[in-house]
Amino acid sequence: MATAITMPRWGMIMEEGRIVEWLKKEGDEIVVDDPILIVESEKVDNEVTAPAAGILKAIVVAEGETAAVGAVLAVIASPDEDAAAVAALLAQSSPPPAAEPPPAVTSAPPPPAPKPRRVNISPAARRMAEDKGIDWQSLEGSGPRGRIERKDVLRAIETAQSTPPGAKSIPLSPMRKAIARRTLQSIQAPQAALCRETDISQVLRFRHSLTAPDWTGDKPPTFTTLLVKAVAMALAAAPILNARLHDDAIWLDDNAHIGVVIAVEDGIVVPVIREANKKTLIEIATELNDLTQRARSGGLTSAEMEGGTFTISNAGPLGIDFFQALLYPPQVGALGVGRGRQRPVVVDGEIVIRTMSYFCVSSDHRVVDAEPIGRFLGKMDEIMQNPDVLLKRTV
Amino acid sequence: MSHRRITFIQAVREAFQEEMRRDERVFILGQDVRAGIFGTTSKLVGEFGEDRVINTPICESASVGAAVGAAMTGLRPVVQIMFGDFNYLAMEITANQAGQWHYLSDGALKVPMVIETPSGARGGAGYGHSQSLEAAFILPPGLKVAVPSTPYDAKGLLKSAIRDDNPVLFFEHRRLLTQRGHVPEEEYLIPLGQADIKREGKDVTLVALSATVQKALSAAERLSQQGIEVEVIDPRTLVPLDKETIFKSLQKTYHLVVVEEGRRRGGFGAELTAIAAEEWFDTLDAPVQRLGTISAPLPYSPVLEAACIPSEDDIVRAVLRSLGQEE
Fold it and tell me: What is the assigned CATH class of domain A123-171?
């Protein structure tokens, strides 16, 4: 029986993908789970594996081209397959309307960093771009195999002409477009931020005390690592914050899957530490370190960025005092942490110097009111004062 | 100006009449030209006599050879080769003698002659009676090649061909012979080497030859309903080729499609595509699309014949491909 390889949907927001590379060519013999091609979605490159065995009969979408989720990319069939069956599958060009079975995605080992791509441009487009001083290397082509055509250059010229004098026009990268879409989506949610000034002197001391033999990591854990563990624990005190809103239902999760905002070149990514509530500090430290490194080399899979139930954004290293983190829909809660600063504070009637930081929780007001946030931030404060609890596996 | 509509055959016959009246050196020879198998030379014998309308034996090399000799010695012969396919029988004379003696004689000799040759696929005439071989004559030096697509063009081009001092191949597609078109009563000439824009458009330049011009115009009409404006250019002569008109169009559309009924491999489309790549590179916004007949003998079955030669649907698809809207 002929089987179609279709554009997978990796995560709920994926609408289309671009073929980076065909690992097999037409006529190749295929066994189940063979890597067939590499697809680039908004944030990652991933392998698509063979759903069936047979001969790769036809490749429909060429390298560099983009196809909608569900669109037929190629057809696998047995060597003696009736051509009509292959043709019938090929004819099925429109994506199926409903949810798809989960695609075969290999999440490990991390794929290699994408190699630089040759930019294709038609001769006419190139001449026009060069005449008009347009940097065509940075343009996105709308033609076959991503070829830049005259209309793409014309669009760039139009943009450049509408750019005010003294300004330079830079087209949005795919990542910035994705961020633009997600933040716009986020801002649709009625969200508020509630902040609590928190004494982090103890937890910082605790952090530096984590050395061998008690701490088996190479170096003390990052402050973000401690925050992940603390948040996973504090969410147990306010479970409504560990949730996702789906239409008219709230999905409360048994486990805390904590997304961590990581700055990368040209944007941010938010990989998720799964079941952080069940993990030890060392496990979280190791995982977060690995995710951070791969985020910066572009080697995260989209599976690693999906399914979060709560998100942490630590802007302390940027010198930010306090801020309202944007929610990451469909999540209903996010914690924004500002920088720690030494301040004179009154403790037991005396002025002492403590390192203070603002913890701000953004929440979707449709789901979460102030009370659980107060409880959550109170619990965070408590953990910050008694950081030894972070060494426990569970609360 | 009159609005007379006559057939391609009548237009060609008028050209013969006018030129034979005008210049007594003009004469016709070929197989059964007095009766006129396709009608283009019928009844001429009545007006011009048997000395100027000469039936020949079935031997194309002899007819063309006789014409070359007559042309060299001062006459202006038109030799008819009844089916284009049979030109190969006279290929040595045409390619090596007719086209080259002006040079070989250091200009002492001229070879002012026309080979009038009905050709192309019509109704499953099959092997030996269906090919469009015009592109085979752009290769030898010294020959001019005309491929009219309308009665008007046929008359104007044939008159110029007869007056030209070089050998001219004049291809008449058999599917066009019975078609009618506007031809004025007044005398006119169409110079060799002047293309005609059969339909103006801004999106794609579609160069079509001979019978494919009609298909190209029908395809353009359909595409127009989708908002795609195709400019249809008929070069009318392949040698000399009016590159200027095609280039001007391309500077407007940036997309080139070429269609012919001759074979695609090594055909006129291949030549034009090469010119585009060499000279018009900066005006190509997409790969050139080339349509022609497949490299196979043409079948007797009309159904299979139609499958071998470019159709109106093929042209529509090629235009869409050029615009990146299909495949």
Answer: few secondary structures
d(CA A351, CA B16): 118
- Rg of chain A (C-alpha set): 25
Q: Do A150 and B285 touch (CB under 8 A)?
A: yes
Does one domain contain both B34 and B121?
A: yes
Q: Do B284 and A122 make contact, defined as CB atoms within 8 angstroms?
A: yes
Q: How far is A122 from chain B (nearest CA, A)?
A: 5
Cβ–Cβ below 8 Å for A124 and B285: yes
By annotation, the residues of B acting in catalysis are 129
Distance from CA of B255 to the nearest CA of A (A): 10
Instruction: Give the number of residues written for chain A.
Output: 395
**Residue B223 CB contacts under 8 Å (≥ 6 apart), including other chains:** B229, B230, B316, B319, B320
Distance from CA of A69 to the nearest CA of B (A): 18
pTM: 0.59
Q: How do the pLDDT tens digits run along chain B, 327 residues long?
A: 567 999 999 999 999 999 999 999 999 999 999 999 899 999 999 999 999 999 999 999 999 999 999 999 999 999 999 999 999 999 999 999 999 999 999 999 999 999 999 999 998 899 889 999 999 999 999 999 999 999 999 999 999 999 999 999 999 999 999 999 999 999 999 999 999 999 999 999 999 999 999 999 999 999 999 999 999 999 999 999 999 999 999 999 999 999 999 999 999 999 999 999 999 999 999 999 999 999 999 999 999 999 999 999 999 999 999 998 875
| Among the listed residues B324, B295, B320, B323, the one whose alpha carbon sits nearest the alpha carbon of residue B309 | B295
The CATH number linked to B139 is: 3.40.50.970
Q: Do A124 and B282 touch (CB under 8 A)?
A: yes
3-state secondary structure chain A: CCEEEECCCCCCCCCEEEEEEECCCCCCEECCCCEEEEEECCCCEEEEECCCCEEEEEECCCCCCEEECCCEEEEEECCCCCHHHHHHHHHCCCCCCCCCCCCCECCCCCCCCCCCCCCCECHHHHHHHHHHCCCHHHCCCCCHHHCECHHHHHHHHHHHHHCCCCCCCCCCCHHHHHHHHHHHHHHCCCEEEEEEEEECHHHHHHHHHCCCCCCCCCCCCCHHHHHHHHHHHHHHHCHHHCEEEECCEEEECCCCCEEECEEECCEEECCEECCHHHCCHHHHHHHHHHHHHHHHHCCCCHHHHCCCCEEEEECHHHCCCCCCCCCCCCECEEEEECCCEEEEEEECCEEEEEEEEEEEEEEECCCCCHHHHHHHHHHHHHHHHCHHHHHCCCC
**What type of residue is B140?**
P
Top-tier CATH class for A177-391: alpha beta
Last residue of a domain, one of B147, B182, B217: B182
CATH number at residue B296: 3.40.50.920
Residue B156 lies in domain: 5-182
Best mutation target among A145, A149, A153, A154 (most B Cβ atoms within 10 Å) is: A149
Q: Which of residues 255-294 of B touch A (CB under 8 A)?
A: 281-286
- List residues of A with catalytic annotation: 365, 369
Tell me if ipTM is over 0.95: no
Judge whether B129 lies within some domain: yes
Search chain B and give the residue with CA nearest A131: B282
Separation in Å, CA A40 to CA A21, A64, A65: 9, 10, 10
Are A122 and B282 within 8 A, CB to CB? no
